[in-house]
Write a structure and sequence with these properties.
With 219 residues, the protein is α/β, with parallel strands linked by helices. It has a single domain, classed as Vaccinia Virus protein VP39 (Rossmann fold). 36% of the residues lie in helices and 25% in strands. It contains eight helices and ten strands. The strands form two sheets. Strands 6-5-4-7-8-10-9 form a seven-stranded mixed beta sheet, sandwiched between helices. It has a three-stranded antiparallel beta sheet with strand order 1-2-3, with no helix packed on it. Helix 3 packs parallel to helix 5, helix 6 runs parallel beside helix 7 and helix 7 runs parallel beside helix 8. It is globular and about 40 Å long. The termini are far apart.
Length: 219
């Protein structure tokens, strides 16, 4: 369980000892879903769009049952919500590298972590043109939470996901990206548009309040 130390959350269980996070967002929004999903799908190659301090990456490292290749896309500049809160993104990026390196060193499996620092549209396009089409077992979309960015990330990530792989979206019902309760300031419209457009190629298999999980049926 997490023990609060100042403004940081020091993970104190056997799997996460020593990892340091400034929040427990992953524990609140994703962990319960991932506890049921990850042991079932057993991803060996994962791409995440939006890594922040590495909470989701460390979860995957700690719970993988074999070798893991993990690609992490982030600008580490923060979104609008982080800028409003004056989050120190240099410290966030440092914690990402410290947390994931520690988790990887402790894993009994071979862990390869490949950070891609930059905007998601640039980095996804580079992966598409670099031989990663239909490569990933799982893709996690948790970058910019503006609806148009979520839709763009989903569409550009689609060719990178193998048939039978799973795409996950975070913070489905959250509306805080732009600082006001506007539907464009949250992922929902983007996720819904993506799943509607790809209706014959993606099957929705799980949709709790925060996490949406879909399986790729066809290229």
């Amino acid at each position: 369980m997490a023990a609060v130390t100042g403004v940081f959350i020091q993970m104190a269980d056997d799997n996460n000892g020593g990892l340091t996070f400034s929040n427990n967002w992953f524990e609140i929004s994703a962990k319960l879903v991932w506890d049921g999903l990850i042991p079932r799908i057993k991803p060996a190659s994962v791409l995440e769009v939006g890594s922040f301090e590495g909470a989701s990456a460390c979860y995957l490292i700690n719970h993988c049952e074999a070798d893991l290749e993990l690609h992490c896309i982030d600008t580490w500049e923060g979104g609008a919500e982080h800028k409003r809160a004056d989050v120190d993104m240099t410290a966030v990026e440092y914690r990402f590298h410290e947390n994931t390196s520690l988790a990887a060193r402790r894993s009994p499996h071979r862990i390869e972590i490949i950070p891609h620092k930059g905007r998601s549209n640039d980095k996804l396009a580079a992966l598409i043109t670099s031989g990663f089409r239909e490569y990933f077992d799982m893709i996690y979309i948790d970058g910019s939470h503006f609806a148009h960015d979520v839709l763009s990330d989903g569409c550009m990530a689609f060719p990178l996901l193998r048939v039978g792989g799973h795409m996950l979206f975070d913070d489905y019902l959250w509306l805080g990206a732009g600082g006001a309760a506007d539907p464009m300031n949250g992922p929902k419209l983007g996720v819904d548009a993506f799943l509607n457009v790809f209706y014959h190629k993606m099957r929705l298999i799980w949709s709790p309040n925060a996490q949406v999980v879909a399986r790729k049926l066809a290229a």
